[in-house]
Amino acid sequence: MSACLTDHHSLCRAPVAIGCVYLTLLLSSLLIAHAQVLQSCTAATNCGAGLYCGNCPALGKTQPFCTRGQAIIPTSTINELPFNKYTWLVTHNSFSIVDAPSLPGVQRLTFYNQEDSVTNQLRNGVRGLMLDMYDFNGDIWLCHSFRGQCFNFTAFQPAINTLREVEAFLSENPSEIVTIIIEDYVHTPKGLTKLFANAGLDKYWFPVSKMPTKGEDWPTVTEMVQENHRLLVFTSIASKEAEEGIAYQWKYLLENEAGDPGVKPGSCPNRKESKPLNSKSASLFLMNYFPTYPVESDACKEHSAPLAQMAGTCYKAAGNLMPNFLAVNFYMRSDGGGVFDVLDRMNGLRLCGCNTIAACQAGAPFGSCNNVTVPSPNPVTNTATGGFTGSVQFARSASTVHSPNNLIFLFPFSFLAFFIF
């Protein structure tokens, strides 16, 4: 075997040659086993902690490189501040997962917004879930719909399944806080109250009576953890605040327009249900950043320079208020740092006056920053399409190259546009 390594021109007998190939591959793997962001890789195991092996052909980056796959939880760096002083990662339509099984005998016809399970989303640092809930099949389901009605070909699963994933996460992580924002089409009396109780989440419930209504600071994250008020739930139906004790979303949250209006460069209009973004009567700001029609292969491009620029635009539109929630599709996809780098910048500026949270020093005066290099997002260069491989707490096989969202191109947008997503 050693002769085979020293003389690559020699011909070896089969068993030795096989050993040569194995050893060569092993050495190659070891050489790049701890590759960092943007460094070349061949598999997820080549990359360092919190990274996976991906690419971004939409930006002309077809060769695989290590890409961030996990968020820095801001409270792990600076704790004890009010909840509204942090920025948290949110997944839009968290339940709408590519490759999720459809109902038996039914082909699902709808859009998809995420790629891995809710459990993995939470493990990767997502702290907010946007869920669409409907009365369906005698239960409450997560679903896309048309005019408030769930169909068997747009349904995903009973909501309690996802809520039990949240309960398991909160149980296993006693210092973490999760926010659930419900697009609410549930008309069953006390339906949501029973649903959350059956999922075991009522014990974590943050009471509406303790939510500030005039733009004041929220309790500190330390206080929320100590009191076990680690689940915030908002509904889009105003009457449920009095009926079920579920906070009415636009009483407490400012929100920019979702879909294409929310990704238009240089503009950050408020959603029509929301108060103006510069209103001082609410202390939480949800920034939507996802196009009307989600396409997996385009997300890496969307999560590069345009996302960072939009964060600045929305910050100014809100009267220099940093968004508390950043909601995106396909949160794992990027050109290297993606939503995770943008989140780090937002928290760094907010919490310590540094250009990234990695530069913050706990207990140090505001503006005291470690010397940390911040990667610059690359500008958009082309609109090619491509695939994806690798994972960090990711649901798919690391060896699979996925062809994005083939299903939605089988149907005209004019048909799919009828469905609420």
From TrEMBL:
One of its GO terms (molecular function) is phosphoric diester hydrolase activity. It comes from the Eukaryota. PROSITE patterns: PIPLC_X_DOMAIN. CDD domains: PI-PLCc_At5g67130_like. The keyword Magnesium does not apply. Keywords: Signal. Residues 1-35 form the signal peptide. One of its GO terms (biological process) is lipid metabolic process. Pfam families: PI-PLC_cat (PF26178). Gene3D superfamilies: Phosphatidylinositol (PI) phosphodiesterase (3.20.20.190). This is Phosphatidylinositol-specific phospholipase C X domain-containing protein. It comes from Turnera subulata.
